[in-house]
Design a protein that fits this description.
Number of domains: 1
CATH class: Alpha Beta
Radius of gyration: 18 Å
Strand order of the largest sheet: 1-2-3
CATH superfamily: CBS-domain
Strand content: 15-25%
Largest sheet: 3 strands, mixed
Structural class: alpha+beta
CATH topology: CBS-domain
Number of strands: 5
């Protein structure tokens, strides 16, 4: 199973990005508008400058109550693990689990083409297991 299979199965294929100089208020509005937990930070919409999540906002808010008046670049993560469409799904799941992050950008030729969340991965795994169960059930009941 490849990451490209997960991307193809996603209902929403658009990659939501935000500029590094955007305000945290705009970030929160973007997260709410798209009902997502993380946004890719990109000055031009295709290259990856970082990633910012709800967790980043909450962790910063804990230490700095004025984070709402700051810009995205002040709270974003700049060391971002990425994967490619051809990467093995189980291997990427391991990377996400070990790194304790819930979103991983998918890039190809230094260009972001998607993002997958742990929810996307779990849904894909459940769908795969359901398909296999249905196939086994069909095989058993053929006889």
């Amino acid at each position: 199973m490849r990451i490209s299979d997960v991307l193809k199965a996603k209902a929403i294929k658009d990659v939501v990005t935000i500029r590094p100089d955007a305000g945290v208020r705009e970030l929160l509005a973007t997260l709410a508008e798209h009902n997502i937990g993380a946004v890719l930070v990109s000055a031009d919409g295709t290259t990856l400058d970082g990633i910012v999540s709800e967790r980043d906002v909450v962790r910063t808010l804990h230490h700095d109550g004025t984070v709402i008046n700051n810009v995205v670049s002040a709270i974003m993560s700049t060391e971002v693990r990425t994967c490619s469409p051809e990467d093995d799904l189980d291997q990427v799941m391991h990377v996400m689990t070990e790194g304790r992050f819930r979103h991983i950008p998918v890039s190809e030729d230094d260009r972001v083409i998607g993002i997958i969340s742990i929810g996307d991965v779990v849904k894909h795994k459940i769908d795969q297991l359901q398909f296999e169960r249905d196939q086994l059930d069909s095989y058993v009941h053929q006889a």
